[in-house]
Amino acid sequence: MRFRLGKFASTQSGVRGSRWATGRWAAVAGASVAVALALVGVALGGLFAGAGAGAGAAAARPATAAALTAQTHAHAAGLRTSCRYVAHIGDSTSVDLTAAGGDLTDPAQQLPARYADVGVKHLQLDASGGRSIVEEMPGQVNGYDVALNWWNQGYRGCWVFALGTNDTANISAGSSVGMAARIQEMMSVAHGEPVMWVNTVTQLHSGAWSQANEQAWDNALVSALATYPNMRIFDWASVAQPGWFLPDGIHYNPVGCAARAQAIADALAQAFPRYGYSHGQIAR
C-alpha cells in the first residue's frame, strides 16, 4: 500500500480498518470516525485552569464490564479535569472506543461519555484505522493534518494524542521520519496547550508492530517530556492486561475497550487535574 505523494512514504500498511479475527495481516480499508460533541453548549473559553500531571493511583483492572461500570460509579465523583475542551486524535484503537467501533454497545462505556464523567464539556474526536502522524492511506488524513486543521479553525484547549502504534511500524518499514521528529510535529500544533499522549503496547514478539518497536516509541515519548513542559504521558502500556487483547495482539476485546476508554479519561483527570499542579509527568 502506498501513501500520498508529497508526504513521507512508507511501504508499510497501517493497523487495520477491520479486525484480523484470523490473526492474518491484511491490507487496511481504513475505518474512521470523526466526532464533534458539544456535551454542554457553551462558548469557547475557560479551557484550562492549571496544568500538571501526576502518576496518580494506578488504574484498576476489573475482570468484567459489569465490574468496570460499578467501579466507575464508585470513584467518578472524585476525578475531575481542568480540560473543558478536548481534541482527541487517534487510530483504530480509538475507533473501537466509539459507537462507530461497534465493540462498546453501552453508550456509557464509550469514550465520549467517559470524558464527560471527568468534566469535559466539549469533545472533538477524530480516529481512523491505520492512522499515523506522517503517512496517509487513500482517503485518510494523517494525525498532524487533523490537528493543524482544527487549530487553524480556531480550536483551543487540551489535546489527547493516541498515536504511535502505526508510526513505529512505518519507521520499522523504512520511513526516514524518526520518532522524535514525529512527536515534534504533533507537539508543534498544540502551541503550548496541554497535551496528554497515550503510549502504545502490543502482544507481538516480532514484525513491524512488535512490542520491542512499541517500547522504543514509548521511550521516545518519555525523552520528549524534557522538551515539552505542557506534555504528559498516560502510561497505558503499564495498565493493559493480556486478557484484554484480541488474537491479533494489537486491538482490544470489549472488556479491554471499556477499560481503555475509562482509563484514558481518568488519566486526563490525573494529568490535568481540576485544581493546581501535580508533581509528575506520567499518569498511570
List keywords for this structure.
single chain, 284 residues, Rossmann fold, 7-stranded mixed beta sheet
Strands, helices and their partners?
Elements: E1 32-38, H1 65-75, E2 85-90, H2 92-95, H3 111-117, E3 122-128, H4 143-152, E4 158-162, H5 165-172, H6 179-190, E5 195-198, H7 211-224, E6 231-234, H8 254-271, E7 282-283
Parallel strand pairs: 2-3, 2-4, 4-5, 5-6, 6-7
Antiparallel strand pairs: 1-3
Helix pairs in contact: 3-8, 4-6, 5-7, 6-7
From the coordinates shown, what is the CATH architecture? 3-Layer(aba) Sandwich
CATH homologous superfamily title: SGNH hydrolase
Ends apart, CA distance between termini: 36 Å
Radius of gyration over C-alpha positions, nearest whole angstrom: 17 Å
Structural class: alpha/beta
Count of DSSP helices?
Answer: 8
Walk me through this protein's architecture.
- The protein is of the alpha/beta class.
- The protein has one domain: SGNH hydrolase (Rossmann fold), CATH 3.40.50.1110.
- Helices cover about 30% and strands about 10% of the residues.
- It has a seven-stranded mixed β-sheet, sandwiched between helices.
- α5 crosses α7.
- The longest helix has 18 residues.
- The relative contact order is 0.22.
- The N terminus is likely disordered.
